[in-house]
């Protein structure tokens, strides 16, 4: 056995000299037989994987979710059953529109992608710091993101595209008002709330279904930056939010969130005056109050940023028994998009990586092979990768994997004709206006200044269309913007 401290090549062979290439003569050119040099350069060329198409800049941490209220009346989900139960978690925070090297203090929603490593598999809530979103149908998402990213010709950010899109998509009004308000630039990831945003479902042992929204309330309080503070910070420390999280956890100043749910009985969805599956809307707490169910604490930093954060593959389709989806058309699209992105970005067997494999249970299935198969999950190992057990089911061997009908989701009644139903002619304005009306005078002034700082850069026809939308949300809102634009 060689000394463990020897520098070796990938095949484990000790390296005699890692400072000097193999050359033909003292001043001569290099030799192709220098496989050490080739291995080093070739691996270097492959150090990067594609960055996430959205939410590329981010940071992560592990933590603990402690259940303080038993939810077995609503769900069989293991992590929501049994007061005091603790479940390991992983979270990745992010901005949305910037690239991997972009500044943290941008005016942009923040990703709040949380994984619970439950005894019945990994449950991911891949939400944002906002309870709503710009769209109500996932077919619009690529168009929307194109307007948030760089112009394909100039490679510059493009306010014209952004406002042109919003002018044509009034369902964005609520989220645009949040984004442009004082809430639009969180000071860091600790001092902001998180939301599951979508409506999901819970189902219990009796087969009853409830609609649910998840809320994570920061115990650090909410702190936001003004445009001026953010502009300065972006120059001083582009990694301000990441640094804040790393320092806090290193100092054992563990950030915490109080976890709440809003719960709606299944049948209410048919009569509630707000479409509960429309992601541009919130459920007023006066209708469905917050129920406190636990606490999330972040208390451990990853050891290897690339392995654990860059390769983290969070997905709204990571669901566990007791938790299901809802008909929300955005959520439905996301159920496809994430695992597809992971197969492209990380590779077929991304779920075998330590951050992605189940930690509190074992993955047992008949899928085999694929690039990099055989990476054993350090927690429980994984059958994927070709151990000796059958790769088909059912089978008659003693180790045959059993289906568990006790985990069957109750059937969901659906009706209606298959069609492409218009996303227009719905109420796009009431909640945007309600939000505007609760802002104080100073905040209204800052909101209008922020909107106009950007909207003033675009063509007159787009400005005029936006003023119509703001006016429909609230006459005073539209009036102030119209005046500030000099229309
Ligand atoms: C990341 C697609 C809507 C929150 C991503 C990624 C894709 C994607 C492809 C990159 C995944 C990866 O490479 O790991 C979509 C589509 C949407 C949508 C198609 C609409 C249909 C939303 C919404 C939210 C959201 C509504 C929040 C409520 C996030 C977060 C991440 C993310 C937090 C980063 C996850 C991480 O930290 O790894 N999205 N998205 N997305 N998305 Fe979405």
UniProtKB/TrEMBL annotation:
Heme binds at residue 338. It catalyses: 2 H2O2 = O2 + 2 H2O. Pfam families: Catalase, Catalase-rel. The gene is katB. Keywords: Cytoplasm, Heme, Hydrogen peroxide, Iron, Metal-binding, Oxidoreductase, Peroxidase. Residues 8-401 form the Catalase core domain. Its cofactor is heme. Residues 383-407 have a biased composition (Polar residues). It is found in: Cytoplasm. PANTHER family: CATALASE. This is Catalase. One of its GO terms (biological process) is response to hydrogen peroxide. The keyword Ribonucleoprotein does not apply. Belongs to the catalase family. Residues 1-21, 383-419 are annotated as: Disordered. The active site is at 55, 128. PROSITE patterns: CATALASE_1, CATALASE_2, CATALASE_3. One of its GO terms (molecular function) is metal ion binding. GO terms for cellular component: cytoplasm. Its EC number is 1.11.1.6. InterPro entries: Catalase (IPR018028), Catalase_3 (IPR040333), Catalase_AS (IPR024708), Catalase_clade1/3 (IPR024711), Catalase_core (IPR011614), Catalase_haem_BS (IPR002226), Catalase_immune_responsive (IPR010582), Catalase_sf (IPR020835). The keyword Iron applies.
